[in-house]
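Q: Could you write out the predicted structure for this multi-component system? I'm mainly interested in how the pieces pack against one another.
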Amino acid sequence: MVRDIEYIVIVDEAFNLYLRRGGFMKKVIYLDNAATTKVRPEVVEAMLPYYTEYYGNPSSVYEFSTPCKKAMAHTREVIANALGAKTEEIYFTNGGTESDNWALKAAAEAYASKGKHIITTTIEHHAILHTAEYLAKNGYEVTYVPVDENGSLNLEALKQAIRPDTILISVMFANNEIGTIQPIKEIGEIAKEHGILFHTDAVQAFGHEPINVDEYHIDMLSASAHKLHGPKGVGFLYIRKGLKLRSFIHGGAQERKRRAGTENVPGIVGLGKCVELAMASMEETKKKETELRDYLIERVLSEIPYTRLNGHRTQRLSNNTNFAFQFIEGESLLIMLDMAGICGSSGSACTSGSLDPSHVLLAIGLPHEIAHGSLRLTLSDETTKEEIDYTIDNLKGIVERLRSMSPLYEDFVKSREKKDI
Amino acid sequence: MYSEKVMDHFQNPRNVGEIEGASGVGTVGNAKCGDIMRIYLDIDDETRVIKDCKFKTFGCGAAVATSSMATELVIGKTIEEAMKVTNKAVMEALDGLPPVKVHCSLLAEEAIHSALWDYAEKKGIQIEGLEKPKSDISEHEEDEEY
């Protein structure tokens, strides 16, 4: 099958996106760039020859595989430069989740003789939280340091959580739901002072925010290509030289015997290209996105009553917005936005199939009923002001409509009327 | 993920609103699990026929659709007939629900019962088969080991 025969995606000259199904066509506004991003044409172009021409196995001896080896070395260099790291400290993986699993499990195993205590936070991605839970079931102790109402880590609480047997601190660089950027440098300094390993899940931040592993005292860092306009299924783990982490995937001698399996060469080429592009335009992209993000936040907060912004107002990713609309529920909101062609996401329970709302929104202190009404809209450098205006114009009507159906809003209005009398 | 009927009742919900001086009102669910339903009934005391039914719901697409369908199913029925509108009947009328949303249909049934209970209490009557409604319906979902 070449294409989905039911759904046709159309992009016009002005880069407007449309989805056609049968006789129906709708304009699509993609505001879920924290979930994944469009692969840039330059990235696809760079990858293609490594499927069709340079298809050799990079482990092979013959000259035919040399371009594959060269391409991988190039990506390693691009990433090392982006992080201020050495090329031999970069290990390719299949993405953020694998990198997180590897970092936590391997560090726990390698340093078990020193201690079995791990510190992380209440707002990590499930790739960290569920790995930490797995370790907790296997003889390790995990402390989850709380965050404040903006989602920023409490540094005092972090210091207090440190024990003589603490071997690892893992704190995400920026949160995937609410966009809050953590004081990574300060955390790295605390870890270094106490001789504890520091891992950061930088899946949302790498290529978006400047990162220097030496300056921030980062020992391990996870990242993924598909959040950066690169392909899905490829990422890396940075491991500081000298750390004795064992292999996570056993097999051949790839990645200096630490990550077996024939390398995803086209993916690695795509990773290198998207990082190159992201690093070259980081400042410009951040500026553009920040302006649009702030415009979106201002308009939503001023035009839709009983709404709050989740996450730090300024210490946040330039492409992230996350709102809580009181009295309404997230899934209903998402379906109605989808009908208007707007792709957003929610920390709502219902979208994930579990009954609990987002652990991140609960961790920043939101009550359940407000946490249920959250909406995350994440931009890219291709997002336009027109798209934002269209989104807000639709959002206003949808929130109003859902509130008119909500028993919580009815109770609120009645109690307000009573007060007025 | 949803059937066309669910989407229709979500997009064009029937009988949304309030009934002033309703014969019975019932609210069930809780904000923790993300669904709250409120049902208003207007009942003819002599014929025991439900003349009108309205709802307000805080919840997901399935919660709105099941509330809407439940109101349609009980309007015009006697109390005794309305007692037979089970969650299964609501689900069937909607051409099914995804497994994780079955609790929404239970909530709809419970909301109707809760409104009938309120009516019975006000009138000092007994409705056969009606038990004091639970304020909440929650299924115990066990997390799989990983």
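A: Regarding packing and overall arrangement: The helical segments of chain B are 4-11, 61-74, 79-82, 87-93, 102-123.
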